[in-house]
Amino acid sequence: MLRATSGLGSFQDSKSVSPEKSKIVMLARTDLFAECLAQAIGSRFQDQDVVRLSDADSLLDGNLVNVSLVMLYRVPATTFPSTIRMIHEFHPKAAVGLLVENAEGLDASVAHLVEEGMIHGVLPLNLHLDVCLTAIDLLMKGGEHFPAALLRRLAPKNPGERDFSGPNETASENGNPERSKGLGQVVLTTREIQILDLICMGTQNKIIADRLGLSENTVKVHVRNIYKKMNVRNRTEAASRYFRSDEGLGPSRTPPPTRWRN
Predict the structure, then answer these.
(1) Which helix (H) or strand (E) covers residue 53, if one does?
(2) What is the pLDDT along the chain (262 residues), one digit of tens a residue?
(3) Per the database record, which ranges form the HTH luxR-type domain (predicted)?
(4) How far apart are CA 2 and CA 52, in angstroms?
């Protein structure tokens, strides 16, 4: 049965989980990898209770509160979409992360959920443990982590295919080149520079959207485009490349907060 950081089953059987404490939930089939990762997460994030579940219905337990992150591993494809909807309905403040064997071979329905912002991070199983734990920390702080292969797959094939521009946005990719800035061989638009500056300060997507007068979905699309153009996988790599660049991208370049560093 379920125990915090040690067992599996129904949440109500756990006696060692504090209602007041924030929780990382691992919804996973039982195997050695899931057990080892749960222990590693528990050791790294000692201010959190790690709750391991094998049954998605346990997410409905009224005693399961203060969930900061739900990590999914080997969830059956037939129930995956309903599980994601359940998480967002009953734990709306929780970030959602997905552990996968191969990001390039991700099922189309799962990729669609990523594109809709229902999944905040995809972590391949071949990640180094330190990188995996850093990515989990990033998700709990409102960030996102996606492999470059997945970002390439999600990116629109043609710039004119879909319009994500908000009312205050200028599509400078097709406009005056003076409105865009360079990062080595990378060309970012003025809007992307604004978002990258805020990313490097550790600003969450919701706050970026608020500050720039955009929808959160528009900000997420810009973030994905920034990752693709810079050939990076996450905020940490984007910030690292940004501050190593010889090209000036903005008026100020303050080092990123420690929390974004690996």
Answers:
(1) strand 49-53
(2) 333 443 434 444 444 567 778 999 999 988 888 899 999 999 999 999 999 998 999 999 888 999 999 999 999 888 899 999 999 999 999 999 999 987 777 777 788 888 788 899 999 888 888 888 988 988 998 888 887 777 766 665 444 433 333 333 333 333 333 334 445 556 777 788 888 888 887 788 888 888 888 888 888 888 888 888 888 888 888 877 777 663 444 434 444 443 333 3
(3) 181-246
(4) 6
Six-digit token string for 47: 């201010």
CB 11 within 8 A of CB 61: yes
Rounded CA separation 46/161 (Å): 46
Please state the φ and ψ torsions of residue 86, each to the nearest 5 degrees. -65, -45
Q: Topology of domain 190-247, per CATH?
A: Arc Repressor Mutant, subunit A (1.10.10)
190-247 has the same fold as 23-154: no
Helix crossing, 235-244 with 190-200: angle to 10°?
A: 110
Tell which CATH architecture fits domain 23-154: 3-Layer(aba) Sandwich (3.40)
